Automatic annotation (TrEMBL):
Gene3D superfamilies reported in the protein's UniProt record: 3.10.50.40, Porin chaperone SurA, peptide-binding domain
SUPFAM superfamilies named among the record's database cross-references: FKBP-like, Triger factor/SurA peptide-binding domain-like
Residue ranges of domain PpiC in the record: 168-269
Organism: Pseudomonas psychrophila
Classification via InterPro entries: PPIase_dom_sf, PPIase_PpiC, PPIase_PpiC_CS, PrsA_foldase, Trigger_fact/SurA_dom_sf
Pfam family, one: Rotamase
Descriptive protein name: peptidylprolyl isomerase
Homology family: Belongs to the PpiC/parvulin rotamase family.
Reaction catalyzed: [protein]-peptidylproline (omega=180) = [protein]-peptidylproline (omega=0)
Amino acid sequence: MKLNNWLILLTLWGPVALCSNEPVVARVNGVEIPAFRLERYFAEYLEDQGRAVGNIRNPKAYQQLRLKALDALIDKELLWQEAVKRDVVISDAVVTEQVEKTRQAVGGADVFARKLNDAGFDEASYTEYTRRELAAQKVFAEMTAVAPPDEQQVRDFYEEHRSEMNRPAQVQARHILIKVPQGASAATIEAARLRLVEVRREIIGAADFSRVAKSRSEGSSASAGGDLGYFSKGRMLPEFDEVAFSMAPGEISQPVRTAVGWHLIYVENHLDEVDVTEEQGFAMVRTYLVQQQQSQARLQVLEQLRSRNRIERTNTE
Protein backbone atom coordinates (compact mmCIF):
# COMPACT_ATOMS: atom_id res chain seq x y z
CA MET A 1 0.00 0.00 0.00
CA LYS A 2 1.26 3.50 -0.84
CA LEU A 3 2.39 5.35 2.26
CA ASN A 4 0.30 8.40 1.42
CA ASN A 5 -2.83 6.25 1.55
CA TRP A 6 -2.35 5.30 5.20
CA LEU A 7 -3.56 8.72 6.30
CA ILE A 8 -6.35 8.77 3.75
CA LEU A 9 -7.54 5.37 4.90
CA LEU A 10 -7.53 6.47 8.52
CA THR A 11 -10.76 8.27 7.77
CA LEU A 12 -12.31 4.97 6.72
CA TRP A 13 -12.22 3.57 10.22
CA GLY A 14 -12.99 5.51 13.31
CA PRO A 15 -14.90 5.39 16.58
CA VAL A 16 -18.47 4.24 16.09
CA ALA A 17 -19.68 7.31 17.97
CA LEU A 18 -18.51 9.50 15.12
CA CYS A 19 -20.70 7.76 12.59
CA SER A 20 -23.69 6.52 14.61
CA ASN A 21 -26.00 9.02 12.89
CA GLU A 22 -24.58 8.47 9.43
CA PRO A 23 -26.52 6.66 6.67
CA VAL A 24 -25.31 3.09 6.26
CA VAL A 25 -24.38 1.72 2.83
CA ALA A 26 -23.58 -1.84 3.90
CA ARG A 27 -23.27 -4.24 6.84
CA VAL A 28 -20.76 -7.07 7.11
CA ASN A 29 -21.86 -9.58 9.74
CA GLY A 30 -23.69 -6.72 11.40
CA VAL A 31 -20.75 -4.28 11.30
CA GLU A 32 -21.92 -1.09 9.62
CA ILE A 33 -20.10 0.67 6.81
CA PRO A 34 -21.32 4.28 6.96
CA ALA A 35 -21.74 6.44 3.88
CA PHE A 36 -18.89 8.76 4.82
CA ARG A 37 -16.44 5.82 4.70
CA LEU A 38 -17.57 4.99 1.19
CA GLU A 39 -17.36 8.59 -0.01
CA ARG A 40 -13.85 9.05 1.33
CA TYR A 41 -12.68 5.68 0.08
CA PHE A 42 -14.26 6.34 -3.33
CA ALA A 43 -11.94 9.32 -3.87
CA GLU A 44 -8.88 7.18 -3.06
CA TYR A 45 -10.20 4.29 -5.17
CA LEU A 46 -10.44 6.60 -8.17
CA GLU A 47 -7.03 8.13 -7.44
CA ASP A 48 -5.43 4.69 -7.64
CA GLN A 49 -6.89 4.41 -11.15
CA GLY A 50 -5.64 7.86 -12.13
CA ARG A 51 -9.13 9.37 -12.10
CA ALA A 52 -10.97 12.07 -10.17
CA VAL A 53 -14.61 12.28 -9.11
CA GLY A 54 -15.10 15.58 -10.93
CA ASN A 55 -13.90 14.09 -14.23
CA ILE A 56 -16.61 11.42 -14.42
CA ARG A 57 -19.40 12.89 -16.54
CA ASN A 58 -21.43 9.75 -17.22
CA PRO A 59 -23.84 9.02 -14.31
CA LYS A 60 -23.94 5.31 -15.14
CA ALA A 61 -20.14 5.05 -15.13
CA TYR A 62 -20.05 6.98 -11.84
CA GLN A 63 -22.51 4.58 -10.23
CA GLN A 64 -20.66 1.50 -11.49
CA LEU A 65 -17.35 2.78 -10.12
CA ARG A 66 -18.97 3.65 -6.80
CA LEU A 67 -20.35 0.12 -6.51
CA LYS A 68 -16.91 -1.31 -7.21
CA ALA A 69 -15.46 0.91 -4.49
CA LEU A 70 -18.12 -0.36 -2.07
CA ASP A 71 -17.22 -3.96 -2.99
CA ALA A 72 -13.56 -3.20 -2.23
CA LEU A 73 -14.51 -1.61 1.09
CA ILE A 74 -16.58 -4.67 2.00
CA ASP A 75 -13.61 -6.89 1.14
CA LYS A 76 -11.44 -4.85 3.51
CA GLU A 77 -13.92 -5.40 6.33
CA LEU A 78 -14.15 -9.12 5.54
CA LEU A 79 -10.38 -9.48 5.72
CA TRP A 80 -10.18 -7.61 9.02
CA GLN A 81 -12.88 -9.82 10.52
CA GLU A 82 -11.07 -12.91 9.22
CA ALA A 83 -7.86 -11.68 10.85
CA VAL A 84 -9.71 -11.38 14.17
CA LYS A 85 -11.11 -14.91 13.82
CA ARG A 86 -7.63 -16.27 13.15
CA ASP A 87 -6.07 -14.33 16.05
CA VAL A 88 -3.59 -12.65 13.71
CA VAL A 89 -1.22 -10.56 15.81
CA ILE A 90 0.88 -7.65 14.57
CA SER A 91 3.71 -6.76 16.93
CA ASP A 92 4.10 -3.28 18.39
CA ALA A 93 7.48 -2.97 16.68
CA VAL A 94 6.01 -3.57 13.23
CA VAL A 95 3.15 -1.14 13.84
CA THR A 96 5.50 1.52 15.20
CA GLU A 97 7.77 1.15 12.16
CA GLN A 98 4.85 1.61 9.78
CA VAL A 99 3.55 4.65 11.64
CA GLU A 100 7.02 6.21 11.55
CA LYS A 101 7.31 5.59 7.80
CA THR A 102 4.02 7.37 7.30
CA ARG A 103 5.06 10.24 9.59
CA GLN A 104 8.19 10.83 7.50
CA ALA A 105 6.40 10.32 4.18
CA VAL A 106 3.89 13.11 4.87
CA GLY A 107 6.56 15.62 5.91
CA GLY A 108 7.51 14.98 9.52
CA ALA A 109 5.95 15.06 12.99
CA ASP A 110 4.26 18.47 12.75
CA VAL A 111 2.57 17.80 9.41
CA PHE A 112 1.59 14.31 10.57
CA ALA A 113 -0.01 15.65 13.76
CA ARG A 114 -1.85 18.36 11.83
CA LYS A 115 -3.27 15.87 9.33
CA LEU A 116 -4.45 13.62 12.14
CA ASN A 117 -6.07 16.54 13.91
CA ASP A 118 -7.76 17.74 10.72
CA ALA A 119 -9.26 14.27 10.31
CA GLY A 120 -10.47 14.28 13.90
CA PHE A 121 -8.13 11.58 15.21
CA ASP A 122 -5.17 11.27 17.52
CA GLU A 123 -2.03 9.18 17.11
CA ALA A 124 -3.38 6.38 19.29
CA SER A 125 -6.38 5.92 16.97
CA TYR A 126 -4.15 5.98 13.92
CA THR A 127 -1.78 3.43 15.48
CA GLU A 128 -4.70 1.10 16.12
CA TYR A 129 -5.94 1.59 12.58
CA THR A 130 -2.48 0.70 11.25
CA ARG A 131 -2.45 -2.49 13.31
CA ARG A 132 -5.84 -3.40 11.86
CA GLU A 133 -4.78 -2.73 8.27
CA LEU A 134 -1.56 -4.72 8.63
CA ALA A 135 -3.47 -7.64 10.14
CA ALA A 136 -5.88 -7.68 7.19
CA GLN A 137 -2.97 -7.60 4.75
CA LYS A 138 -1.21 -10.42 6.61
CA VAL A 139 -4.22 -12.74 6.65
CA PHE A 140 -4.84 -12.07 2.96
CA ALA A 141 -1.22 -12.93 2.14
CA GLU A 142 -1.49 -16.15 4.15
CA MET A 143 -4.77 -17.17 2.51
CA THR A 144 -3.48 -16.49 -1.02
CA ALA A 145 -0.06 -18.13 -0.65
CA VAL A 146 0.66 -20.52 -3.53
CA ALA A 147 3.15 -23.33 -4.00
CA PRO A 148 6.04 -22.84 -6.45
CA PRO A 149 5.18 -24.01 -9.97
CA ASP A 150 6.24 -27.50 -11.01
CA GLU A 151 9.60 -27.45 -12.82
CA GLN A 152 8.20 -29.39 -15.77
CA GLN A 153 5.45 -26.79 -16.06
CA VAL A 154 8.13 -24.06 -16.03
CA ARG A 155 10.15 -25.79 -18.74
CA ASP A 156 7.10 -26.43 -20.94
CA PHE A 157 5.98 -22.79 -20.67
CA TYR A 158 9.50 -21.58 -21.42
CA GLU A 159 9.80 -23.73 -24.54
CA GLU A 160 6.44 -22.53 -25.80
CA HIS A 161 7.17 -18.84 -25.24
CA ARG A 162 10.97 -18.54 -25.43
CA SER A 163 10.90 -16.61 -28.71
CA GLU A 164 8.73 -13.93 -27.07
CA MET A 165 11.35 -13.36 -24.36
CA ASN A 166 14.07 -12.31 -26.77
CA ARG A 167 14.04 -8.96 -28.53
CA PRO A 168 16.31 -7.78 -31.33
CA ALA A 169 17.86 -4.32 -31.23
CA GLN A 170 15.31 -1.66 -32.15
CA VAL A 171 15.31 1.97 -33.17
CA GLN A 172 12.56 4.53 -32.67
CA ALA A 173 12.63 7.07 -35.48
CA ARG A 174 10.80 9.62 -37.59
CA HIS A 175 11.48 10.47 -41.20
CA ILE A 176 10.69 12.96 -43.92
CA LEU A 177 10.40 11.50 -47.40
CA ILE A 178 10.77 13.26 -50.74
CA LYS A 179 9.65 10.77 -53.36
CA VAL A 180 11.61 10.14 -56.57
CA PRO A 181 9.82 8.32 -59.44
CA GLN A 182 11.36 5.17 -60.86
CA GLY A 183 13.55 6.00 -63.86
CA ALA A 184 13.84 9.66 -62.91
CA SER A 185 16.64 11.68 -64.48
CA ALA A 186 19.78 12.60 -62.57
CA ALA A 187 18.58 16.19 -62.46
CA THR A 188 15.26 15.18 -60.86
CA ILE A 189 17.02 13.00 -58.32
CA GLU A 190 19.40 15.79 -57.38
CA ALA A 191 16.59 18.34 -57.15
CA ALA A 192 14.78 16.09 -54.66
CA ARG A 193 17.97 15.74 -52.60
CA LEU A 194 18.50 19.47 -52.50
CA ARG A 195 14.92 19.98 -51.27
CA LEU A 196 15.69 17.68 -48.36
CA VAL A 197 18.98 19.45 -47.67
CA GLU A 198 16.99 22.66 -47.29
CA VAL A 199 14.47 20.93 -45.02
CA ARG A 200 17.32 19.65 -42.85
CA ARG A 201 18.79 23.14 -42.61
CA GLU A 202 15.40 24.43 -41.46
CA ILE A 203 15.16 21.79 -38.71
CA ILE A 204 18.75 22.32 -37.52
CA GLY A 205 17.83 26.00 -37.25
CA ALA A 206 15.40 25.07 -34.44
CA ALA A 207 12.30 23.97 -36.33
CA ASP A 208 10.40 21.01 -34.89
CA PHE A 209 11.01 17.80 -36.87
CA SER A 210 7.49 16.49 -36.31
CA ARG A 211 5.86 19.74 -37.41
CA VAL A 212 8.01 19.98 -40.55
CA ALA A 213 7.31 16.33 -41.38
CA LYS A 214 3.57 16.99 -41.31
CA SER A 215 3.86 19.77 -43.88
CA ARG A 216 6.79 18.63 -46.04
CA SER A 217 6.98 14.82 -46.03
CA GLU A 218 5.47 12.87 -48.91
CA GLY A 219 5.37 9.60 -46.97
CA SER A 220 2.33 7.86 -45.48
CA SER A 221 3.52 8.75 -41.95
CA ALA A 222 3.42 12.51 -42.63
CA SER A 223 0.15 13.03 -40.72
CA ALA A 224 1.81 11.46 -37.66
CA GLY A 225 4.79 13.77 -37.87
CA GLY A 226 6.83 11.13 -39.70
CA ASP A 227 6.60 8.74 -36.74
CA LEU A 228 7.72 5.21 -37.60
CA GLY A 229 7.61 3.87 -34.04
CA TYR A 230 10.09 1.18 -33.05
CA PHE A 231 11.46 -1.17 -35.69
CA SER A 232 14.12 -3.85 -35.86
CA LYS A 233 16.59 -4.49 -38.68
CA GLY A 234 15.04 -5.86 -41.83
CA ARG A 235 11.73 -4.05 -41.55
CA MET A 236 12.85 -0.95 -43.45
CA LEU A 237 14.70 -0.68 -46.76
CA PRO A 238 18.38 -1.74 -46.41
CA GLU A 239 19.84 1.74 -46.96
CA PHE A 240 17.43 3.22 -44.41
CA ASP A 241 18.24 0.49 -41.85
CA GLU A 242 21.97 0.93 -42.22
CA VAL A 243 21.86 4.65 -41.44
CA ALA A 244 19.17 4.55 -38.75
CA PHE A 245 20.96 1.87 -36.69
CA SER A 246 24.26 3.76 -36.90
CA MET A 247 22.83 6.99 -35.50
CA ALA A 248 22.67 8.20 -31.90
CA PRO A 249 19.37 9.30 -30.32
CA GLY A 250 18.67 12.95 -31.12
CA GLU A 251 20.69 12.88 -34.33
CA ILE A 252 19.34 13.92 -37.75
CA SER A 253 20.80 12.20 -40.79
CA GLN A 254 21.95 13.62 -44.08
CA PRO A 255 19.61 12.74 -46.97
CA VAL A 256 19.46 8.96 -47.46
CA ARG A 257 18.66 7.50 -50.89
CA THR A 258 16.40 4.43 -51.17
CA ALA A 259 14.30 2.93 -53.93
CA VAL A 260 11.39 5.26 -53.08
CA GLY A 261 13.27 8.54 -52.80
CA TRP A 262 15.24 10.59 -50.30
CA HIS A 263 14.78 10.35 -46.54
CA LEU A 264 15.73 12.55 -43.64
CA ILE A 265 15.92 10.35 -40.54
CA TYR A 266 15.54 11.52 -36.94
CA VAL A 267 16.40 8.85 -34.35
CA GLU A 268 14.55 9.28 -31.04
CA ASN A 269 15.65 6.20 -29.11
CA HIS A 270 17.57 2.91 -29.20
CA LEU A 271 16.59 -0.34 -27.49
CA ASP A 272 19.42 -2.82 -27.08
CA GLU A 273 19.03 -6.45 -28.03
CA VAL A 274 17.68 -8.65 -25.25
CA ASP A 275 18.89 -12.23 -25.39
CA VAL A 276 17.48 -14.14 -22.44
CA THR A 277 19.50 -17.13 -21.25
CA GLU A 278 17.75 -20.35 -20.32
CA GLU A 279 18.36 -19.66 -16.62
CA GLN A 280 16.95 -16.15 -16.91
CA GLY A 281 14.00 -17.46 -18.91
CA PHE A 282 13.17 -20.06 -16.26
CA ALA A 283 13.28 -17.38 -13.55
CA MET A 284 10.97 -15.12 -15.56
CA VAL A 285 8.53 -17.98 -16.11
CA ARG A 286 8.51 -18.94 -12.42
CA THR A 287 7.71 -15.35 -11.44
CA TYR A 288 4.99 -15.09 -14.07
CA LEU A 289 3.33 -18.37 -13.12
CA VAL A 290 3.37 -17.51 -9.40
CA GLN A 291 1.79 -14.13 -10.16
CA GLN A 292 -0.91 -15.81 -12.23
CA GLN A 293 -1.62 -18.33 -9.47
CA GLN A 294 -1.73 -15.61 -6.83
CA SER A 295 -4.10 -13.50 -8.90
CA GLN A 296 -6.46 -16.46 -9.21
CA ALA A 297 -6.08 -17.27 -5.52
CA ARG A 298 -7.01 -13.71 -4.52
CA LEU A 299 -10.21 -13.88 -6.55
CA GLN A 300 -11.11 -17.26 -5.07
CA VAL A 301 -10.39 -16.21 -1.46
CA LEU A 302 -12.48 -13.07 -1.71
CA GLU A 303 -15.32 -15.00 -3.32
CA GLN A 304 -15.21 -17.56 -0.50
CA LEU A 305 -15.23 -14.84 2.15
CA ARG A 306 -18.20 -13.13 0.51
CA SER A 307 -20.16 -16.36 0.22
CA ARG A 308 -19.72 -17.52 3.82
CA ASN A 309 -20.29 -14.18 5.54
CA ARG A 310 -23.44 -12.08 5.84
CA ILE A 311 -23.29 -9.01 3.63
CA GLU A 312 -26.11 -6.49 3.33
CA ARG A 313 -26.00 -3.57 0.93
CA THR A 314 -28.48 -1.09 2.30
CA ASN A 315 -27.93 1.95 0.11
CA THR A 316 -26.09 2.05 -3.21
CA GLU A 317 -27.49 5.33 -4.53
